[in-house]
Known about the structure:
With 308 residues, this protein is α+β, with helices and mostly antiparallel strands. It has helices at residues 9-20, 23-40, 50-66, 101-104, 111-119, 123-129, 134-145, 150-157, 161-174, 186-201, 205-211, 230-240, 290-297; strands at residues 212-221, 226-228, 247-254, 257-264, 267-277, 280-287.
Amino acid sequence: MTVDFEPYRRELLAHCYRMLGTPDEAEDVVQETYLRAFRAYDRFEGRASLRTWLYRIATNACLTALEQRRRLPLPSGLGPPTTDPDAPPVLADAWPRPIPDALITPDSADPAAIAEARDGVRLALIAGLQLLPPKQRAVLILREVLAFPAAEVAEMLGTSVAAVKSALQRARATLHDAPAVGELTEPEQHELLDRYLTAFTNSDLAALEQILREDAVIEALPSRTWFAGKRTCVAFLRHVIGEPGEWRMTPSRANGQPAAAVRYRGEPFGVVVLTAGHGGIARITVFGFPDLAERFAGEPANRTVTPG
């Protein structure tokens, strides 16, 4: 008997990404999940749905992978912001990575399904999850993101319902609610992204300052140094904005948010992801990893922004 696991691939990838924080690791674990499922399918008794069974395999594969490495929070999860925009960056080599929307957005034309998929991988959520111990992380995702009943989660993790409830309570206590930024429509997000990219490629610091919120934050990986507040952020941007034409940006989407693949002086630089809300840009997260520029440049985009 053959069984088709492919309809579950995108949601399993999103689940593994929430657990692990990097798309490449998540894709590897999904492949491992399918391999384990094919090998064990003759022992699948149908007491739970096929979807629940696959989530059980995927979750435990993620927990095994997490035994081999440390957590991957964003810089804002590692300590307070610096107040000195002239401070030299403190570099680190282990970070989460953004995920292209196209990998996790369902084929469905239902706007509600697309919005739900995007909400489940927002950078604020991914960053918060990386602060949790692996078991608590799994419980929070399975219960609150995926809405599995506590009894099913206990079965997946080989534990008791009481232990699941306790882990969920501890996870909630650890996470701090992200400040509300206000929901924007997709056209409003595109408009704000275009303004940001045009200002940056034209080295127009005044235009950048105009679209930043007063509580704006900048995180520029692989540095663990980060900045909070419009005044400090603008002072930092003054150091990096360069001359008109040095930056080229191709609009894209990552983690359900407006993003862009970035090149600097013709060379791949990385990806920038914006958290856009009422009043402007609340957070700029720069992933300065050149391989990402190529990966995201191939995602759905409208145009490459050039000076002018």
